[in-house]
Design a protein that fits this description.
Blueprint (H helix, E strand, L loop, with lengths): L8 E2 L5 H12 L4 E4 L2 E3 L6 H7 L1 H8 L4 E2 L3 H4 L7 E6 L3 E5 L2 E7 L9 E2 L2 E3 L2 H10 L11 H15 L1 H18 L2 H14 L11 H7 L6 H15 L13 H17 L7 H10 L7 H14 L2 H4 L6 H15 L17 E2 L2 E2 L6 H13 L5 H14 L6 H14 L13 H14 L3 H14 L6 H10 L14
C-alpha cells in the first residue's frame, strides 16, 4: 500500500482538522515531536540535518514576524556554530536539533528590508551596519572582517564605484536613524580604502588590500591558480630532454608548432598551404591576415633567442607578453597588439578576467609561478595562467602555448605541440580546472602531449609522413591519436 510522502518538518496546524491530522500521524509513528511546536518525519539520526537545511521553513512557520539580521542576512545559512541570527523584541535563544535561533533585541524592519518567505531580511546596507556595529563581546553575531571586506570588494568589482557610493549613502541614513555611528564609520573606512580615497591599511584581507593599493585581482581565478600550484608544487613530472642539435629539426618543429597552434584557434590551412606561407613567403590574396597569424607565431617559435627568454620578474613577464603579442597580432590592429584588453572577452558562456583585474591577477599568478621549479611545472602553470586570464583581446591561446614552450625550450626540454586530433583533450583539460576545479586532468593531458611531441622532426618529408601516420592532422572524432 502506497503512503503519501510527508515533508521532513511539520508544524502545529491552525485548524482543528490540521491538529487532528498531526495527532493521527504521531499516533501511527509516522512523525515524532522533536522540539516545541516542531515535528519531523525523518529518522532520528537525520533530524538535525533536516532542521538545519529547513531553517527558513521553520522560521517562516513559527516566527513570521522576525527579521533575519546580522551575519545571517549576508549568508542566508546557519553559521559554523549552527546559529541563525534574528532581530526581535527580546534577547533569547531557542534550541532545536542541529540549530539555534538567536534573537537579538533591536529595531524592526525598515521599508527597504526585503521580504524572505513569510518574514523579512535586513537589506545589504543594514546588514553591513549590523555586522560592523557589534562589539567584541558579541563578535559571534558578525561575519569575520575579512569576509565583509571581500563582499564589498566583489561588489565594486562587479557593480562598480557608483554601487558602492549608493550603499554608503543609504547606510548613512540608516546609521543616523538608528544611532549606529560606530558601524557606519567602520564601513566608510573600508569603502574609502577600496575606492583609493582612504587609508589602504584600513582593510586587512588580501583581496581588499590589493584593490586599495591599486592592484585588484580576480579572486575565483586566483583560487584556481592556487589549486594548480598546489598540484604542481611537489608533483614528480616527466621531463624529456630534446638532445637534437640538428637545425632542421628545430625549424621543422617550429613550423608544425605554429601550424597546429593556429589550427586549434580556427585559423585553418591545409599543411601544403601553410608550407608555402612560411617557407616560401607566399601570402594568399584571399586570406592575408590569416596567413600573417601563422607567420607571426612562427616568427616567435622559430627564434631560439626568443624561446630561451623566460621572465625573472613580473616586469619581465609583462614585457615578454607584450612583445610576443605584438608579433602575433601585428596585422590585426583591432586586437590591440601588445596592449591588454579594454573590454571583457569570453569563449561561449565563459567570461574571462575583467580588464580592470587583468594586471593584478597576472601579478598574483606570477608570484606563484616563481615558487615553482623551472621546467615542466612552470610550463604548465604559465600556460594556464595566460589562458585563464585571457589578458588580450585575441591571440591568448597561441600566446599561452608560446609561454609554455619557452619554459621548456629554455631548459633544453622537448616542447609541446597540440595536434588537431588532440584538440578536444587539450580543451577538456583546461575546462576541468576552469569549470570543475580539477587540476589533475590538465596536468595529465600536457604530460601526455610532452611525451608524444618528443620525436624527430627532420628530415621534413619523413616527419610529415610520420605525423600523418599518427593522425595528427585528423579532426577529433575522425581518428585516434597514435602515440
Amino acid at each position: 500500500m502506497l503512503v503519501d510522502p510527508l515533508p521532513p518538518l511539520l508544524f502545529p496546524g491552525k485548524t482543528r482538522s490540521d491538529r487532528s491530522w498531526l495527532a493521527r500521524l504521531e499516533q501511527s509513528g509516522r512523525i515524532r515531536r522533536v522540539a516545541p511546536r516542531l515535528y519531523s518525519s525523518v529518522p532520528a539520526s537525520k533530524v538535525p540535518e533536516a532542521v538545519r537545511s529547513g531553517w527558513s521553513t521553520l522560521v517562516s512557520a513559527l516566527f513570521p514576524g522576525a527579521l533575519l539580521s546580522h551575519r545571517s542576512a549576508l549568508e542566508y545559512r546557519p553559521s559554523p556554530r549552527g546559529e541563525i541570527v534574528l532581530t526581535g523584541t527580546t534577547n533569547r535563544e531557542l534550541l532545536y536539533p542541529g540549530l539555534t535561533l538567536r534573537f537579538v533585541r533591536g529595531p524592526g524592519p525598515l521599508d527597504d528590508d526585503p521580504p524572505f518567505l513569510a518574514f523579512r531580511a535586513s537589506s545589504l546596507s543594514r546588514a553591513l551596519l549590523e555586522n560592523l556595529q557589534v562589539t567584541r563581546r558579541r563578535a559571534d553575531l558578525a561575519l569575520p572582517m575579512e569576509d565583509i571586506e571581500k563582499r564589498l570588494e566583489e561588489l565594486v568589482a562587479v557593480k562598480g564605484e557608483p554601487e558602492l557610493n549608493r550603499l554608503r549613502d543609504r547606510s548613512r541614513q540608516i546609521a543616523r536613524d538608528l544611532g549606529w555611528q560606530r558601524g557606519y564609520e567602520r564601513l566608510v573606512g573600508i569603502i574609502a580604502a577600496l575606492l583609493g580615497t582612504g587609508d589602504a591599511n584600513r582593510v586587512t584581507s588580501r583581496q581588499a588590500h590589493a584593490r586599495a593599493v591599486g592592484s585588484p585581482y580576480d579572486s575565483p581565478r586566483l583560487a584556481r591558480l592556487e589549486l594548480l600550484f598546489g598540484s604542481l608544487r611537489h608533483c614528480p613530472l616527466p621531463e624529456l630532454v630534446d638532445d637534437s642539435s640538428d637545425s632542421a629539426h628545430f625549424v621543422n618543429k617550429a613550423f608544425f608548432d605554429a601550424y597546429f597552434s593556429n589550427y586549434i584557434e580556427g585559423t585553418t590551412f591545409e599543411v601544403e598551404e601553410a608550407e608555402s606561407i612560411v617557407f616560401d613567403g607566399k601570402i594568399p590574396d584571399a586570406r592575408p591576415t590569416d596567413a600573417h597569424d601563422i607567420l607571426g607565431t612562427h616568427a616567435i617559435v622559430a627564434d631560439p633567442n626568443q624561446m630561451r627568454s623566460v621572465p625573472a620578474s613580473f616586469h619581465d613577464f609583462e614585457r615578454l607578453l607584450a612583445l610576443r603579442h605584438r608579433t602575433l597580432m601585428a596585422e590585426r590592429p583591432e586586437a590591440r597588439p601588445g596592449r591588454y584588453k579594454d573590454r571583457p572577452n569570453r569563449a561561449g558562456s565563459t567570461f574571462f578576467v575583467p580588464p580592470e583585474l587583468v594586471r593584478g591577477t597576472l601579478e598574483n599568478g606570477f608570484a606563484l609561478y616563481q615558487d615553482l621549479p623551472p621546467g615542466m611545472a612552470r610550463a604548465i602553470f604559465v600556460m594556464f595562467l595566460v589562458a585563464e586570464v585571457h589578458p588580450f583581446t585575441d591571440g591568448n591561446g597561441r600566446l599561452a602555448r608560446i609561454m609554455m614552450n619557452a619554459e621548456l625550450f629554455s631548459r633544453g626540454l622537448a616542447t609541446i605541440i597540440i595536434p588537431n586530433v588532440y584538440r578536444d583533450d587539450y580543451l577538456g583539460g583546461l575546462r576541468a580546472l576552469s569549470r570543475r576545479e580539477r587540476a589533475e586532468p590538465l596536468i595529465a593531458m600536457l604530460v601526455k602531449a610532452h611525451q608524444f611531441s618528443h620525436r624527430r622532426y627532420a628530415p621534413y618529408p619523413d616527419a610529415l609522413k610520420d605525423l600523418r601516420r599518427r593522425n595528427w592532422f585528423a579532426e577529433p572524432g575522425e581518428a585516434k591519436l597514435v602515440v
